[in-house]
Amino acid sequence: MLSISILDENDNSPSFPKSSLSVDVLENMRIGELVASVTATDSDSGQNADITYSITATNNHGTFSISPNTGSIFLVKKLDYETQSFYKLNITAKDNGRPPRSSSIPVVIHVRDFNDNPPIFTPGDIFKSIAENLPISASVMTITAHDTDADINGELEYSIVQQIPRGSHFTIDPSTGLIYTNREIDREFSNLFELTVKATDQAVPAEFRRFALKNVTIWVTDQNDNVPSFVSQNALVAEPNIVIGSILTTVVAFDPDDGANGEVEYELVEGDSDTFIMDRYSGDIRLASQLVPSRLMYTLAVSATDHGTDRKTSRTELTILLQGMDGPVFSQPKYITILKEGQPPGTSVISLDASSPRGSASRVEYFIVAVRSGGKAVGRLFTIGRNTGVIQTAAELDREKGSDLYLVDVYAIETDASQPRTQRAESLNFLTPGGDGFTSTPGCRSRSLHSETRERENLEEAN
């Protein structure tokens, strides 16, 4: 029998089932992971059908490798979407025939973004200067960050996560980063605001989101929006025989504005300018000529004017009482009052009562000449009804910010006498965190309160 063997001729090239291949991979793919697989077939037999795979073009920087036997494509170098998001490989399948035959397929690899980059603000500190009294919703500045990630991974939302001092004086547009005022901006409240701005990308899920923080410092410049406010008392007592040239009192006004806007000068605008002179810078009032011993009081009008471009002025009346004898008699020489802190200005504290030894027909008026705490003058925290003797608060009192004891010196004068007739009384006002309104204690009938008062007085004298 004759046997004829037909030997294969390498007349077929390897062929791929598709003309091209496209795959998507995440940029955070680990090195060594499988990217894709290509498979070619060869109709020949034997070694003419044995196929070897290779990357024959555009394998940038050797980012990928291919198994020559299986056609599996692997990642060799780390991907970075922001550097390169698209690869096009040319994969060649070659048989082992003689001569070998081959064919190729383009493999397109799309790198999909992974949220691997945080937002970035421009380096350096951010400072902004604004004028006080800006209207609410006024634009301050725009702060932006950049995120090189794509799509929602690179979309940013802005927020203010901290403000010093507290109070939500500023807010920010979450989309644009525009900072604008949310409350009244008052330099006298604070001349410096520190904001912490947060930029957060919108990756999904939310726990994959990344953020960056930026500190923003806002300086508030002054406007002359405050008038000088007098803090010294509007009454004093003088001896009739005081020496010419002596300082009777020093008028003090406070202006919380800054620089020239807060510098104050004084002027004696009404009253006996032949008897009194005033230093425009220090506020000292001196005696220019001898006081008239039979005169009961002098009334002056004093102004305080700041040095701002738009100068602001306030005025006060100053009463100078001449010290006298045999004056009105108070119902008690010392009044003790317990007052709850935090009461609004105008709260009645206690009513003082004095009467003339010469009968009820004599008219009596009352004046506060000093308010002290801790041995120091503390300004106009109390007022007194000139005709009624009712002491009221002139400000909201706070034990933590001020004191828990105030000593108020009060003088009563007979206004229809032919010569000065005055008398002094003292009101000790205790400030407590509890209670409602006030409780007055005549004389020293409360032993525990009297003991505490004596201790406070000793401390005042020691200071």
From TrEMBL:
Keywords, comma-separated and alphabetical: Calcium, Cell adhesion, Glycoprotein, Membrane, Repeat, Transmembrane, Transmembrane helix
GO annotation, cellular component aspect: catenin complex
Molecular-function annotations in GO: beta-catenin binding; cadherin binding; calcium ion binding
Main location: membrane
Pfam families for the chain: Cadherin (PF00028)
Entries under CDD domains matching the protein: Cadherin_repeat
Listed GO biological process terms: anatomical structure morphogenesis; cell migration; homophilic cell adhesion via plasma membrane adhesion molecules
Localization, UniProt: Membrane
Occurrences of domain Cadherin (ranges): 17-121, 129-230, 245-330, 331-444
TM region(s), chain numbering: none
Span list, region Disordered: 422-463
Record-linked PROSITE patterns: CADHERIN_1, CADHERIN_2
Ranges annotated as biased composition (Basic and acidic residues): 449-463
Family matches, as SMART domains: CA
Coiled-coil parts of chain: none
Recorded superkingdom: Eukaryota
Name of the protein described by the UniProt record: Cadherin domain-containing protein
